[in-house]
Amino acid sequence: MKLETVKTSGLSLAILQRAMAAVLIWIGLVLPAHAVLEVDINQGQVDPIAIALPNFGGADPQSQKYGVDITTIIGNNLERSGLFRPLPQNSYLQQVVDFNAQPRFVDWQTIQARALVTGQAVILGDGRIRADFRLWDVYGQSQILGLQFVTTQKNWRRIGHLISDAIYKAMTGEEGYFDSRIVYIAESGPKNKRKKVLTIMDQDGFNTRELTNGNDLVLTPRFSPTSQEITYMSFAGGRPRVYLYNIDTRQREVVGEFPNMSFSPRFSPDGQKVIMSLQEGGNSNIYEMDLRTRRLRQLTNTAAIDTAPSYSQDGRRIVFESDRDGGQQIYVMNADGSGQQRISFGKGRYSTPVWSPRGDNIAFTRFGGGRFSIGVMRPDGSGERILTEGFHNEGPTWSPNGRVIMFFRESGGENGGAKMFSVDLTGYNERPVPTPSFASDPAWSPLLR
Amino acid sequence: MRINWSLLTSFAVHAAILLMAIVVLPSPDEHNIPAPPPIAVNIEDFQDVAKRANQTTEEVKKKPEPQDKPKVQKVEKKIDRPSPKPAKEIKQAAREPQAQPEPEPKPEPKPEPKQAEPTPPDPTPLEELIKKTEEVAPEPKPVEEPKKAERKPVPKPRIKPKPPKKIVKKKKQEEFKVDDIAALLNKTDEEKAAPSDQTDTGTPLQGLQNLSGEDRQVTATALDWLRQRVGQCWSIPAGARDAAGLIVTLRFQLDINGNLTAQPLVEQVTNHPAAQAAARSALAALIQCQPYDRMPKETHSLWADIRMKFDPSVMVGLN
What we know:
The structure holds 2 protein chains of 2 kinds. Helices cover 16% and strands 41% of the residues of chain A. Chain A contains 4 helices and 31 strands. Chain A has helices at residues 2-30, 61-81, 105-110, 156-172; strands spanning 37-41, 49-52, 57-58, 84-86, 115-123, 129-137, 142-151, 181-188, 195-202, 209-210, 218-223, 229-234, 241-246, 252-254, 262-267, 273-280, 283-290, 296-298, 306-311, 317-322, 329-334, 341-342, 349-355, 362-368, 371-377, 385-390, 393-398, 404-410, 418-424, 431-432, 438-444. In chain A, strands 2, 3, 4, 5, 6 and 7 form a 6-stranded mixed sheet that branches. A 4-stranded antiparallel sheet of chain A has the order 10-9-8-31, with no helix packed on it. Chain A has a 4-stranded antiparallel sheet with strand order 11-12-13-14, with no helix packed on it. In chain A, a hairpin with a 6-residue loop joins strand 9 (195-202) and strand 10. The longest helix of chain A has 29 residues, at 2-30. Chain B is mainly alpha-helical. Chain B has 15 helices and 3 strands. In chain B, helix 5 packs across helix 11 and helix 13 packs across helix 14. Classes of the chains: A alpha+beta, B mainly alpha. Strand 1 (37-41) of chain A pairs parallel with strand 3 of chain B, so a sheet runs across the interface.
């Protein structure tokens, strides 16, 4: 009997054990329960993105040339931004990339390219040019973008800028700024008798066009939101006044007839109004003019020089400079003129404030210690940072995405003159802006439509 | 006569049962003998003998659970990698090909090996091992045992029983051959005997500090290194300057050499204009910076499966 009992218990035990093991195995298979290690990464690098840009292909010599030229534009744009590092083409392991095939990602990983751009140019039957491109995520091994642009051959450079913007946005997460223009004052002639011509060019310095003949002094040009109009001040007729200029029609008109000088104009974000300073004796106040009704509204009323107004990106606030407290300082107010308050309290004088298209910063010129600096601060005056300084820097203007600031720098001396530069918000990526002559007073357009 | 019949019947029945027991069932000893030792043994073998010394002894005395434990551990190991991740990998691979012709090889190879691992733990070897273990177990304590005990005392189990299990898992994953297991078990047996003695003696205290401390420190150090390593490769996209609310979470698995076993999976991306760019840069960083070969192999099971959260908000002064 005992034996039976023992055996039975042994059997049942064995069965039980095996059954339990089976159940546990089954549970293990069905429920992959295991610990996942949680890791937080809060530090990273701000290195430029390594990008590979093999020349765009083409079926014939003409389209091949376009392909190479477009590739060059893209490479230059991205490199100038400081956020990309185009890899030298002679380092590419895969020299010929079929536009319609998937690239050999391993080859591009080997040279540590984060992204790869492939493309081709095609001359269409009607003479227009078409460019196709693909942006590849080398490590993700997938296509990020694939776009096609068509335009006239005369307009081919814009294809390069549009593709640059597309790449920039995909890789950085913010809008690009390459398909945009700069209007500025081209200066030539002896220093005491400078000829100043209103000039427009692409943001990379190409396609320069003169808009005025240089007979009259022109200053402070500003783009409209559509980039088709410019407002500026001109001494035409011996009286300094604010004008509107249509780039396409080349028509010019005066913004209001005032007894005294009008100056420092700027468009509202909706393009419906122009804000400017009107001289009143030894002082000036800020006014807003509705371009449709031509109705004028006074926004400031002080016995001081209030000038250089600039709208916030949403049009609800205005930043301007004033010497009402002594030296020039920066103030903000609501768009109706209420709530005026000073925001600059650093050493020196602050002038030419410009609200960023992103709304997060205000760029300014600061003069102190015999030097002019270009800096930024938050709309509440906090976070002031100087991006560049020197003998004479002035007139900041924002790129459409609010990352880059262009300004001009006067060099002293008999043969000195004004040249334009750009610097990004880090302050580390300062570049000269190529112009055929001396240049000042740049204004950056929004992205073209 | 009747008595004879009853005796005969009784005898026959008993004989039949005996036969059945002998033929059908494995020897009673096998069942009775609490297989528990294997588990405890493994742990000891690998490194931290002392830790489990107490547990081992107790387990052996009490129940046969140990048998189950080893299996579970093995299963977990196998399961960990094969089931969840491979599936994802396969999905990814499937997606990519559709969009673009040639999928890359990375994901495929790894899944297979893992699957293979699960099968090895068949019952037969265990039985054999158990037998061997039984035979060996009874024998007294060798001289070597004390040393082990000194290295890794008993206290651990009380405070932190987890570390030992992890270690066992790792080892199992690495070497999953039956022969090896058998060898381990044998060693275990010897060691088992030792721990019990030691336990009785009451020497185990030192072990706790070493084991638990080491495990955690190694992990912390390794984590710091891992963070640094990935951080060095992670290029924060310019669009992340308004980084508040921009978080990218990637999930990935590493083999024991610190290589990704497959393409990392983007588990979560917050709603931010630069989120996609940040996800791509994070993924590139992970791939670019492998292998993560300074991760301690002994604790592989701790970092085999990682969920990594990229949060650049701390660095928002980049503007």
